[in-house]
Amino acid sequence: GNLVRAQGHVNNVTYIRYAESARINWAQNYAKYHDPTHKKQWEELWTPKGDGLILRSIKTDFKFPMSWPDRISVYHKLRSPPADTSESFILDVLILSERHQRAAARCVEDIVVYDYRRGQKVPLRPFMVAQLEKTWDAQQAAKKENGAKVGELLARVRRLEMDSWDREGALEDTGSP
Question: Which of 8, 24, 59, 84 has a CA 20 to 30 Å removed from the CA of 135?
Fold first, then answer.
């Protein structure tokens, strides 16, 4: 399959490959940086050797047709806190076009934990729950901190508006005499 169409647009299936590759990197980062104690278990999640993370479904909303060449950044975010009894979790994915500095696609990945040895779904393993809880907490802290920054920015914009065109007695400049 051609990943770039004749018109230079990136084929839609390529976006799904971007999300898949980034999800593997996401788990590899746990193995390398966040939880080296369980490095082997994290690394085996992408092999049929034991437990695996299987993509049950993916939904992709395409925002605009990216064209080649472009560079991308892909970000994954947990949709909800992990539960030790859950056999799956949802990841929200953002695929950014570096050339256009905007979202090219948003995906929702439904991931299942699968035990290849037993041939069945299994609950998240304790090492996974522990790290995903830390990730969830970090996401929530960042959301709170960035929400506060946005609130401050909106307040500054409102003050600027009140000091200029939204003050009592201000006249609208329509650009004509």
Answer: 59
Residue holding tokens 């004509």? 176
pTM of the predicted protein model = 0.83
The DSSP string of 55-109 is EEEEEEEE-S--BSS--EEEEEEESS---TT-SEEEEEEEEEETTTTEEEEEEEE
Cα 72 to Cα 77, 100, 127: the distances in Å are 17, 10, 30
Q: Answer whether the bond into residue 65 is a cis peptide, omega within 30°.
A: no
Give ∠ CA 65-70-75 in degrees, rounded to 5. Answer: 80
Q: Are strands 51-62 and 72-78 parallel, antiparallel or unpaired?
A: unpaired
Q: Residue 69 and residue 170: Cα distance in Å, rounded?
A: 49
Percentage of the chain beyond pLDDT 70 is 94
Counts of helices then strands in the chain (DSSP H, E) = 3, 5
Q: Is the per-residue pLDDT at 91 higher than 60?
A: yes
Type of residue found at 72? I
